[in-house]
Design brief:
Blueprint (H helix, E strand, L loop, with lengths): L3 H27 L5 H29 L5 H28 L25 E3 L6 E3 H19 L9 H24 L4 H13 L4 H12 L3 H4 L8 H19 L15 H20 L7 H29 L4 H15 L8 H26 L7 H19 L9 E3 L8 E3 L3 H33 L6 H6 L1 H6 L7
Antiparallel strand pairs: 1-2, 3-4
Helix pairs in contact: 2-3, 2-4, 2-10, 3-4, 3-5, 4-9, 5-9, 5-15, 6-7, 9-14, 9-15, 10-11, 10-12, 11-12, 11-13, 12-13, 12-14, 13-14, 14-15
Length: about 500
């Protein structure tokens, strides 16, 4: 045991050692730590978005097909969700959210393939300086987006696509279309990395190396993000991307037997209404969760998801009522989905009144595309993936550039460089922002449209996209899966 005198004699040395350790302790203390509230919210959000796919989307789509194809739709959606999850942890997360070297503008690399370097201690930044969440949570949240996006596509060509061909197409589509799109739109260095580089420049404005580092950090972003285009929760990555892919698919696969001649009515609008309701609830995780933390912007995104959806549902209902003489449940829930789609890119940027106006416009516009335009051109977009997801996504993506304006109740733009360590307001020019949004839409349409056409053709040549006429007439429940949705 140490004597009191010897302990006293050691105090100066101990104090000196403590002083030496202070900088290291300060640095360690400065490292941001995940907030339990943010983490809990993001865990719930990931589960909500999964619910959008299974059972939400599966029931929404399943109710809209004929009885003989109900089980095939449920199987297709569930299988795509599982397939996307496995691919995501294998290499999808890495391709979407890491630096891609010479191809960084378009796609990430494989540095995190099979979750290399990702563990329970690793974190990712949000949109606030000094705020992080566990990387596992972010990975799970983004995985649910990769799950639902390809599942949306099948609505354009249900009741006639071969199951084996569909699975191969989905693997290719995720790899060559979805992951690059997610990277182009959402990949960036993060606020804290930018702040650190900006602080070095602020400390010594004449330091060429510091300036070069800042340029490198701000340039470490996907192509569309680097243009300044805004997409809060997936207007381009999810809805336009899936919508145009579905449209190309329905054209290449062809119309259902009897389309335009026979009654191909939904077998259960009850199921469709249940599915639409689950989608709406799950969409709060989709939109509000995309803020990556729990704060005022999260609440704004949630409110916008309420009002835009309600406005769009009523808009479609009354427009259809006036055009066809009767208001329909199918029209109202379709309008709700149109509103959800349109507000997705704007949910954390627009004000509530702007979102309500966007929803009302989306409901009316999507009704026209799902009725008049579709009938005029005669294409069999079976469950209106193009009319709702692609067109609603285009409207929302472009409108985001307008509704973000502070003068219209929007939150404005953010500058992470002007005041390092602070998200300072940035200059907003409507024409510049809208142009960036239009460029983002154009790239998405071309990348997904042309890319999907190539992938469909490859799969069709190798496997064959469409079932035989006999199989289509009998129904895919029995011919593809050997079971029925209903036995009575």
């Amino acid at each position: 045991m140490m004597s009191r005198s010897r302990w006293t004699a050691c105090l100066p040395a101990a104090a000196a050692l403590s002083l030496l350790a202070l900088p290291a302790l300060a640095q360690e203390a400065a490292a941001p730590v995940p907030n339990k509230g943010d983490t809990a919210w993001m865990l719930v959000s990931a589960a909500l978005v999964l619910m959008m796919s299974v059972p939400g989307l599966a029931l929404f789509y399943g109710g809209l097909v004929r009885t003989k194809n109900m089980l095939s739709v449920l199987t297709q959606v569930f299988a795509i969700v599982c397939l996307a999850g496995v691919i995501w942890v294998a290499y999808g997360y890495s391709l979407a959210f890491t630096n891609g070297g010479g191809l960084n503008a378009f796609v990430g690399g494989l540095s995190k393939a099979f979750l290399s370097g990702v563990n329970s201690d690793s974190t990712v930044g949000t949109f606030s300086n000094g705020v992080v969440i566990p990387e596992y949570v972010y990975l799970c949240f983004q995985m649910t987006f990769a799950m639902i996006t390809p599942a949306l596509i099948i609505g354009a060509f249900v009741e006639r696509v071969r199951f084996s061909a569909l699975l191969v197409f989905i693997v290719l589509w995720l790899t060559f279309i979805y992951f690059p799109m997610a990277h182009m739109v959402w990949y960036w260095a993060g606020p804290d990395t930018i702040a650190d580089a900006a602080k070095a420049v602020a400390a010594n404005a004449s330091d060429a190396a510091a300036k070069a580092k800042l340029d490198e950090v701000t340039g470490d972003a996907g192509l569309i993000y680097s243009w300044g285009a805004l997409d809060f929760a997936g207007g381009t990555v999810v809805h336009i991307n899936a919508g145009i892919a579905g449209f190309v698919g329905c054209l290449m696969i062809g119309k259902r037997i009897g389309y335009g001649r026979d009654l191909l009515a939904p077998h259960s609008l009850t199921m469709t209404m249940i599915g639409a309701s689950l989608l709406w609830v799950g969409w709060f995780g989709f939109n509000a969760g995309s803020n990556l933390e729990a704060n005022g912007v999260t609440a704004l995104a949630m409110l916008n998801t309420f009002v835009a959806t309600a406005g769009a549902a009523l808009s479609w209902l009354f427009v259809e009522w006036g055009a066809k003489g009767k208001p329909s449940l199918l029209g109202m829930v379709s309008g709700a989905v149109a509103g959800l789609v349109a507000v997705t890119p704007a949910s954390g940027f627009a004000g509530p009144m702007g979102s309500l106006a966007l929803g009302i416009l989306a409901g009316a516009m999507c009704f026209v595309f799902c009725s008049s335009v579709k009938n005029a051109f005669g294409y069999d977009d079976s469950l209106d993936v193009f009319g709702i997801h692609c067109m609603g996504g285009i409207l929302g993506a472009i409108a985001t550039g307008i509704l973000v304006s502070p003068s219209l109740g929007g939150v404005g733009l953010v500058d992470y460089v002007a005041k390092p360590g602070t998200a300072a307001p940035a200059d907003y020019v409507m024409a510049t922002q809208v142009l960036a949004q239009i460029k983002a839409v154009a790239v998405t349409l071309v990348w997904s449209g042309l890319g999907s056409a190539i992938l469909y053709k490859i799969v069709d040549v190798v496997i064959g996209l469409r079932v035989t006429q006999e199989e289509e007439r009998e129904g895919l429940d029995l011919t593809d899966h050997g079971e029925r949705a209903y036995n009575y």
